[in-house]
């Protein structure tokens, strides 16, 4: 399935999502690696098979194998970290903040791509997963790396539209029963 096939599969009520997928695929504020990696990481974070296949078919071959692997790794590590750090942040027991996480996170230190790209993909996934603590941490690193507000926003826009497309596909599948 391609991105066009995904858009064609979305119902009429999701016209805005179709349009946003097209617009964001042509986003010029991010270089191709950042943009395509955001799409791939977001699709893997959402986990909807047909959306993953469409985005993988559209964008994965435009990334180096290292970048594609790093985008998937961002989805994987943030799937763990977003749950853990959201708990730490939301728990009323403050002593959790003083404990070491004791979770392996080696890929963050050595993702195999430029650190800013991995941080951007991690931010996109963290936005999907709703971890404010991780969003703040990754956004801070991206600012230090020199990314602009508009570039950071573009990554979150991609994440939000991929998430919406995934939710629509799941809902339509459930409705079809």
Note the gap between the termini: 22 Å
The pLDDT mean sits at: 97
Spatial shape: globular
- The CATH architecture comes to Up-down Bundle
Q: Supply the helix-strand structural class.
A: mainly alpha
Count of discrete alpha- or pi-helical segments spanning 4 or more residues: 9
In N-to-C order, the SSE pattern is HHHHHHHHH
Instruction: Give unreliable regions as ranges.
Output: none
Instruction: Determine the CATH topology.
Output: AhpD-like
Give the full name of the CATH homologous superfamily: AhpD-like
Strand content: under 5%
Indicate the radius of gyration in whole angstroms: 16 Å
Q: Count the beta strands.
A: 0
Bin the helical content: over 70%
Q: Structurally, how many domains make up the residues?
A: 1
CATH C-level class is Mainly Alpha
Produce a short descriptive summary.
With 177 residues, the chain is mainly alpha-helical. It has nine helices and no strands.
Question: Topology of this protein?
Answer:
Blueprint: H1 3-9, H2 15-25, H3 32-46, H4 49-59, H5 65-90, H6 106-109, H7 115-129, H8 132-144, H9 149-176
What does this structure look like?
By secondary structure, this protein is mainly α. It has one domain (about 5-175): AhpD-like (Up-down Bundle), CATH 1.20.1290. It has 9 helices and no strands. Helix 3 packs parallel to helix 9 and helix 5 (about 65-90) crosses helix 7.
Relevant terms:
single chain; 177 residues; mainly alpha; AhpD-like; 9 helices; globular
